[in-house]
């Protein structure tokens, strides 16, 4: 599954879409994410019905957070299609994939808990691994831990 | 007062066994320790393997793992204690009836282990509750857990009871339960059970969080060479 | 609460927290259930009690330095975790693996699969109430395989055996005889287990039609592993991606038809029999001598703190005994990973726990959790 081939198919079928490709992955603007995922899920050639990995990366030097999705197809046994969405660090909001893929539910909650990316449309967005009163997002590059040994 | 060995063996030949009340009481208690069924992480699997057929723990009397803390007298903290889990561990310890003992199994329960430098890992369970035996290893072999249990049994053998007031007087019944704070637990450690080392720097900054700069310890003077 | 001839009896819902310390939650896992009598109305899992910040630790260490930490993810199957991580790094940096090392890797992965499925059946029956006898049988078999792991890798559980481009050390003399012995005796143990369990009335009445999972929901909720195959979907990453040398072996993929707890138990027994077939083929095909680590891998292993892979990202996944275990690595050309993420199968298989348990009793919830096969080191990382 070539990234260039997927890019040309997507640009042909979704009006107003501008994509870049970086290596084997496609960088999708956040407004069109649901449309792109819906197309890849329903289209007969792709049938990407299984989201394998939803995670986030913090690029402190470049000033954005990136949410990465790996999609596979269980029906046609092909894949992966890698979709990346970039959001600014001070306002990281992007649409959630949970209405399409139920499997993204816990992974998006973990990405919110550890990195602070807010997924709009998620049914239950709260901390999953840290306790509720915790402040801060631990996997960000500028997070400072507490010191347990102050006398 | 102890009984003389010669007299003991003479009486044994006649079928009379002589001992002190303390020894008998301790023998009964240490040969039937019931652990609490409480495994946190990987060390729990080695604990279960110790209870299984190859490294039988039943021959030491500890086969009956109780699910409820009210019926147990030994808590084997096996695995990493995280800050999220620490209040539960202290609460369980408070619910156990006296006399109670704690074995800290594995590197993670002793001091945080390989996961020490983390935002969610408690650097050892002895920050909040008193620990009797530490068993190093990652994970310790089942034989090591049995060795630790035997050491605990020896410790119990040496305990003296001089009336119910003096029994285990150095330990308290209940320890305060920490609460979830903004970045960690409050308080970070309990002053009665734990004190940080005196040669650590006053404040751990981000740079030296991983490799703290110890103040150099002056070398011990060598004794003069004998001619 | 009023009671009169015109109005029915009013009741209240009861909220109970099962865990984190509970004999049958397989670790420190907590379920907040809301009960109406004994029937479950709502169930919310709470995790994070074993969150050991594995991903943050890996960002401060070299690539090879994280290999012992991957052992502690799914602590029952440490060899397959190492395999998935080695595969991801080899994809990132283009290291190849020699022939004999490939066979050794598949041998270790399949033996780990036997260990995991045996332990799962032991613990599932523990949850059903057969206190500890099946666990004794399961651990007896596990000890035989762990003796082999100790001879090969030096440690019973946390093996740290795989390296990028091969494995750490060659098999000692006599290891292949021990493997032959295990493989010849295992079918007898499986027959003994099946004779006691598969037709057992108590097992059937408690496990059949309990916790049914439909195909569409399973695919949509990203379920993988034996749970997915018990629901009837034919997706096994060993056949789809053909990583390692799995395309040289002939084995079938067992599928269930109903998707209940009994199917999940039986699919695992059939998978163990297929694994024994693969082990027989390995014993026939494995070359006697060969390199155990490739040249590029040897340079990476010699100076791990200075080895730099090329910049980019890679996602490597394998069919672990519990599901699809994947590692997503982002590298910026320095010796430490920029981002290291683990895609754990147990964590994602818990998504539909509530759906399977609604309307059933508390005792059913315990065995449904047992059949999902979670291990907390992986759920919380």
Write out the strand line-up for the largest beta sheet of chain A, numbering strands in chain order. 1-2-5-4-3
**How much helicity do the residues of chain A have?**
10-25%
Largest interface: A-C, 32 and 33 residues
Task: State the separation between the terminal residues of chain A, measured CA to CA.
Answer: 58 Å
The CATH architecture of chain A can be given as 2-Layer Sandwich
In spatial order, strands of the major sheet of chain C run 1-2-3
**What is the CATH homologous superfamily assignment of chain A?**
NADH:ubiquinone oxidoreductase Nqo5 subunit
Low-confidence stretches of chain C: none
Strand content of chain C: 5-15%
Beta strand % of chain A: 25-35%
Computed structural class of chain A: alpha/beta
What sort of overall outline of chain A do the alpha carbons produce when their principal axes are compared? elongated
| CATH uppermost class of chain A | Alpha Beta
Textual characterization of the structure:
Chain A has helices at residues 3-13, 33-42, 104-115, and strands at 20-22, 25-27, 50-59, 64-73, 78-88, 93-95, 118-120. With 151 residues, chain A is an alpha/beta fold. Chain A has one domain (3-120): NADH:ubiquinone oxidoreductase Nqo5 subunit (Beta Polymerase, domain 2, 2-Layer Sandwich). In chain A, strands 1-2-5-4-3 form a five-stranded mixed β-sheet. In chain A, helix 3 (104-115) links the parallel strand 6 and strand 7. Chain A is elongated. Chain B has a three-stranded parallel β-sheet. Chain B has helices at residues 5-13, 21-30, 42-51, 86-95, 107-111, 142-157, and strands spanning 74-78, 101-105, 133-135, 179-180, 185-186. Chain B is of the alpha/beta class and 227 residues long. Chain B contains six helices and five strands. Chain C is α+β, with helices and mostly antiparallel strands and 381 residues long. In chain C, helix 6 runs antiparallel to helix 11. In chain C, the strands form three sheets. In chain C, strands 1-2-3 form a three-stranded antiparallel β-sheet. Chain C is globular. Helix content of chain C is 48%, strand content 12%. The longest helix of chain C is centred in the first third of the chain and has 30 residues, at 99-128. Chains in contact: A-B, A-C, B-C. The interface between A and C is medium-sized, with 32 and 33 residues.
């Amino acid at each position: 599954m070539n990234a260039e081939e997927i890019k040309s198919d997507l640009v042909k079928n979704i009006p107003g879409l501008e994509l870049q490709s970086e290596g084997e992955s496609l960088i999708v603007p956040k407004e069109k994410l649901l449309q792109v995922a819906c197309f890849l899920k329903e289209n007969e050639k792709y049938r990407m019905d299984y989201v394998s990995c939803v995670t986030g990366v913090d690029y402190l030097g470049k000033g954005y957070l990136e949410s990465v999705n790996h999609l596979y197809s269980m029906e046609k046994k092909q894949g992966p299609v890698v979709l990346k969405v970039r959001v600014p660090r001070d306002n990281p909001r992007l649409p959630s994939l949970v209405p399409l893929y139920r499997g993204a539910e816990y992974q998006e909650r973990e990405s919110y808990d550890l990195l602070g990316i807010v997924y709009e449309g998620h049914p239950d967005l709260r901390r999953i691994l840290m306790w509720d009163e915790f402040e801060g997002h631990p996997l960000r590059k500028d997070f400072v831990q507490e010191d347990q040994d102050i006398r | 007062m102890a009984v003389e060995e010669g007299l003991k063996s003479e009486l044994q030949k006649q079928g009379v066994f002589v001992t002190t009340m303390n020894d008998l009481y301790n023998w009964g208690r240490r040969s039937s320790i019931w652990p609490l069924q409480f495994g946190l992480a990987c060390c729990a699997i080695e604990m279960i393997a110790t209870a299984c057929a190859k490294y039988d723990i039943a021959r030491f009397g500890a086969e009956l793992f109780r699910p409820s803390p009210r019926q147990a007298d030994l808590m084997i903290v096996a695995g990493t204690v995280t800050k999220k889990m620490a209040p539960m561990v202290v609460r369980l310890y408070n619910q156990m009836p006296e006399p109670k003992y704690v074995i800290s199994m594995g590197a993670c329960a002793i001091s945080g282990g390989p996961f020490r430098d983390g935002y969610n890992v408690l650097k050892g369970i002895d920050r909040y509750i008193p620990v009797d035996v530490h068993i190093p290893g990652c994970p310790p072999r089942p034989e090591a857990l049995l060795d630790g249990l035997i050491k605990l049994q020896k410790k119990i053998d040496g305990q003296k009871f001089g009336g119910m007031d003096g029994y285990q007087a150095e330990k308290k019944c209940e320890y305060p339960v920490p609460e979830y704070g903004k970045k960690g637990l409050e308080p970070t450690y309990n002053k009665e059970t734990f004190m940080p080392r005196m040669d650590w720097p006053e404040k751990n900054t981000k740079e030296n969080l991983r490799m703290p700069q110890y103040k150099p310890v002056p070398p011990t003077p060598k004794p003069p060479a004998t001619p | 609460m009023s009671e009169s001839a015109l109005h029915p009896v009013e009741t209240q819902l009861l909220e109970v927290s099962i865990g984190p310390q509970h004999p049958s939650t397989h670790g420190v896992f907590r379920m907040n259930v809301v009960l109406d009598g004994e029937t479950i109305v709502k169930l919310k899992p709470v995790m994070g009690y074993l969150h050991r910040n594995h991903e943050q630790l890996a960002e401060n260490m070299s690539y090879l330095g994280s290999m012992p930490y991957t052992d502690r993810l799914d602590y029952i199957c440490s060899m397959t975790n190492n395999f998935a991580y080695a595969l991801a790094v080899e994809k990132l940096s283009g290291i190849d693996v020699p022939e004999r090392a490939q066979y050794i890797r598949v041998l270790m992965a399949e033996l780990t699969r036997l260990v995991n499925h045996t332990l799962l059946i032991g613990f599932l029956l523990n949850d059903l109430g057969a206190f500890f006898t099946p666990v004794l049988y399961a651990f007896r078999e596990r000890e035989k395989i762990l003796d082999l792991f100790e001879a090969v890798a030096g440690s019973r559980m946390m093996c740290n055996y795989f390296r990028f481009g091969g494995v750490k050390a060659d098999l000692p003399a006599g290891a292949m005889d021990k493997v032959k012995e295990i493989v010849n005796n295992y079918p007898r143990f499986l027959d003994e287990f099946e004779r006691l369990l598969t037709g057992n009335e108590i097992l059937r009445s408690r496990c059949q039609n309990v916790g049914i999972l439909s195909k569409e929901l399973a695919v949509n909720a990203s379920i993988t592993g034996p749970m997915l195959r018990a629901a009837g979907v034919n997706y096994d990453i060993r056949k789809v991606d053909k990583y390692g040398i799995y395309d040289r072996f002939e084995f079938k993929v067992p599928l269930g038809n109903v998707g209940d707890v009994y199917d999940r138990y039986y699919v695992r027994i059939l998978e163990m029999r297929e694994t024994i077939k693969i082990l027989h083929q390995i014993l026939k095909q494995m070359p006697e001598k060969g390199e155990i680590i490739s040249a590029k891998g040897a340079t990476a292993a010699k100076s791990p703190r200075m080895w730099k892979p090329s910049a980019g990202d890679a996602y490597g996944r394998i069919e672990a005994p519990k599901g699809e275990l994947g590692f997503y690595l982002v590298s910026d050309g320095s010796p430490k990973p920029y981002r290291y993420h683990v895609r754990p199968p147990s964590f994602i298989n818990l998504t539909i726990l509530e759906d399977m348990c609604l309307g059933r009793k508390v005792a059913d919830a315990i065995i449904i959790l047992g059949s999902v096969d979670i291990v907390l080191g992986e759920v919380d990382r």
